[in-house]
Amino acid sequence: MEDASVNLPPGFFFSPTDQELVLHFLYCKASLIPCHPNIIPDLDPSQLHPTELNGKALLSGNQYYFFTKINENRTTENGYWKEIGDTESILSTVDKKVGTKKYLVFHIGEAPLGTATNWVMQEYQICSSGFDAASYRSAWRRRKHDQICSKWVLCRVYEKRKSDQQGVNCYSDDDDSGSELSWLDEVYLSLDDDLEEIGMPN
């Protein structure tokens, strides 16, 4: 998958919600429904260090997206992914549980004594119970639910800034801590400083 097909054209930005990732991408993948455009590749994270995702996974902003098989052992050649925090439920617009999301942090070294890095993985898994799949019925209703739920997960991987490393909640994919000024704020502040130096006429 090391080709341009996993990259977005200039001007396009892939920024789906958790619900959209589950319903529009993961359900299609799990039930063999063709997904257009098919821009998320299949990867095995146990074969890659997070820094090696570039050029292999779908990159949008600072986030990498890929499908992989469900595997409780996320060990790589030089580290491992460790699950942290609680598994979150993903709800549909009618408040039905359609999937789950769990957080993992990449550690360098051997478990359980590895050193945590800034690399975070959000792993999405579908949940068929209580889901009204009317739009998908023709493709996956013939398949058993356990077959749908037992094979694929969708992963979103990103590197957190060191300034954001404050507890489990810092692993949210919202990378705007709100503590830094935007470039526009800095411009306005610099204009205020200039006006004070010049002084207003009496």
UniProtKB/TrEMBL annotation:
Signal peptide: none annotated. One of its GO terms (molecular function) is DNA binding. Keywords: DNA-binding, Nucleus, Transcription, Transcription regulation. GO terms for biological process: regulation of DNA-templated transcription; system development. SUPFAM superfamilies: NAC domain. Residues 8-160 form the NAC domain. It comes from the Eukaryota. This is NAC domain-containing protein. It comes from Psophocarpus tetragonolobus (Winged bean).
